[in-house]
Amino acid sequence: MNMLDAGGVPTVTDGVRNADEDNPKGYYEDERVKELHKAEDKTWLRDARGRAIKIVSYLLKSLPSDHNYKVILLRRNPQEILKSQAKMLARRGEFSERSDERMLELIRKDLDDARFFLRRPHFEVIELHYKEILEQPREHAKRIAEFLAEPLDIEQMASVVDMKLYRNRT
Question: Of 12, 16, 56, 89, which sees the most CB atoms within 10 A?
Answer without folding.
Answer: 12
